[in-house]
Amino acid sequence: MEELLKLWASMGIANLTWGQALMMGVGGVLIYLAIAKKFEPLLLVPIGFGALLSNIPVAGIGGHDGMIGQIYIVGVETGVFPLLIFMGVGALTDFGALIARPSTLLLGAAAQFGIFATLIGAVALNFVPGFDFSLQDASAIAIIGGADGPTAIFLASRLAPELLGAIAVAAYSYMALVPIIQPPIMRALTTEQERAVVMQQLRPVSRLERMLFPFVVLLLCAALLPSAAPLIGMLTFGNLLRECGVVERLSRAAQNEIINIVTIMLGLAVGSKLSADKFLTLETLGILLLGALAFSIGTAAGVIMGKIMHRVTGGKVNPLIGAAGVSAVPMAARVVNRVGLEADHHNFLLMHAMGPNVAGVIGSAVAAGILLALTGT
After folding, report:
1. Contacting residues for 26 by C-beta, under 8 A, at least 6 apart
2. Closest CA to 72 of 89, 44, 41, 51
3. Which of 51, 129, 204, 370 is the most buried (most CB within 10 A)?
4. What is the rounded distance in angstroms from the CA atom of residue 371 to the CA atom of residue 374?
């Protein structure tokens, strides 16, 4: 009888709490959204499965000595995984549209306004009973507005590691919901006539310009904001691999094998932070709400800057491209193109929107560097 009781006590069903069961359900929902709805499947599948693994009773897979717990310590606490992801993003990204029209940097910068507005909102939320966000916590939450998962994870691992799971899920969830969240904001802030503006074809960009661009960006970062150098440095290195033309094997590895392996490991590591004891708190709900606010404000600010550029240029800029200033590459640019086509079936804005879109990648990294410099210990 004693042996049977001991066996029962070792079973998962005897140790399963309602919180663990709920978080397993959350993991299942993330996997469903990834498979059935195609919402950021490359990350939501491993994050969702990581949530399942980390909530198995007794096993301790997501704990300090568990498999995915160790992956988290090695890759996320050190910041290595997000940086390797940034290298892959740089290798995958064509910065030609930004180089051809540098003024779109303003759109990428404007879209980061949501980050700093939400920083204030997160601090203000402390006046509500049950919330206690430090300035570091608020900074890590605010970066969700950049719609850049790796940057959000990098900053959260530095400033608020205990909030990493909620911040990562919020960041990738809102990235996945770009096609749903952005169009209503874009339509509300623009007129039919503005959405129908057809932009002139971009000028050709030389190979020399493409190769010099990563060096210029890196030197500016080193001179003005060294705290952003890890993110900007890996982004520009990956882009140099792409553009220099002499290391095709390395460029392909950064675009495929490396980023794919790291994406799997990063997703599982983030999933390890979705255990019931870490995720089921009032603060998590606040993070999800603030993340939605940050993303919405960032989209609106980008569109408003687009309207300003539309006026200044005498109607040559379609204000819709400002919505692509968030760094969800290339999804935000595709949404802009779709909304533009609704106004005019011959209005193809994809390449024009890629300028502010890749500017948003740089902008979110710069914003993270500013927050790290101001609030980091």
Report:
1. 48, 51, 274, 279
2. 51
3. 51
4. 5
